[in-house]
Amino acid sequence: MALLYRVTLTGIKGFYRVYKISGNATLYSLHRQLQSDLEFPQDQLILFKALDEGGSVVARYGLFDLGDGAVDDVTMAQTRAKGIVSFVYFYDVAGKKSVNVTFDGETPEAATSPTIVEAKGPNPIEFEKGYVAFEDLPDEKRHLPGEERKRTKLEELLNIRLDDEDVEDEEDEDESGEEDDDAPEEVYDESENAIF
């Protein structure tokens, strides 16, 4: 039997990874696998901040023993027995960069090392560079190319056009040389001499 853990980014719907992990695996083996799979920097101090079901911090695990044990001494089964349901895994403590690692259930399948069984979205570094997943776009910007974009409530209230096509058409008519009904009529007397 193995444990399932879901890795997410706070506030971002377009990213997750689900890992299958043996209960005998240490936090260090999870750290190494996350570091490898998600392309986290190798030269940073790390920290697992352990949370119980109520969201209270119950332990902190680092490369060095911070009072609750070091990551290479603590197994996933031990954290479950302690009532830990999630971790905030700081992969860059100095930069305060982290992902959430949440217990997601159990599976009868065996696991020898932490393995990704489900994935969505690019690695977290892409979100740092400005990538925005479709699910994270505001409703008014969430449309596919060729689809008409949805109106916002304000646009509906004010009956604002969604694109500039109508405005461009009106401008084209003005530029096409058609006479404007409101323009004053020009009168040319043939007796006047025109200089060209």
In words, what does this structure look like?
The chain folds into 2 domains: 2-135, MM3350-like (Structural Genomics Hypothetical 15.5 Kd Protein In mrcA-pckA Intergenic Region, Chain A); 137-176, no CATH class. Helix content is 20%, strand content 28%. It has helices at residues 27-37, 76-81, 124-128, 153-158, 165-175; strands spanning 2-9, 12-22, 47-51, 57-62, 86-92, 97-107, 115-120. The longest helix is centred in the N-terminal third of the chain and has 11 residues, at 27-37. The relative contact order is 0.19.
Summarize the structure.
The chain is an alpha+beta fold and 196 residues long. 20% of the residues lie in helices and 28% in strands. The chain is elongated, with a radius of gyration of 30 Å.
Give the percentage of residues in beta strands: 25-35%
Oligomerization state of this entry? Answer: single chain
Helices, by number, come to: 5
Task: Give the CA-based shape.
Answer: elongated
| Main sheet strand line-up | 4-3-5-6-1-2-7
The tally of beta strands, per DSSP, is: 7
Mean pLDDT, to the nearest integer, reads 82
What class do helices, strands and sheet pairing give? Answer: alpha+beta
Task: Indicate the CATH class of the largest domain.
Answer: Alpha Beta
CATH superfamily of the largest domain: MM3350-like
In CATH, the topology of the largest domain is named Structural Genomics Hypothetical 15.5 Kd Protein In mrcA-pckA Intergenic Region, Chain A
Distance between the termini: 96 Å
Radius of gyration: 30 Å
The profile of the biggest β sheet is: 7 strands, antiparallel
**Uncertain regions spanning at least 5 consecutive residues:** none
Helix content: 10-25%
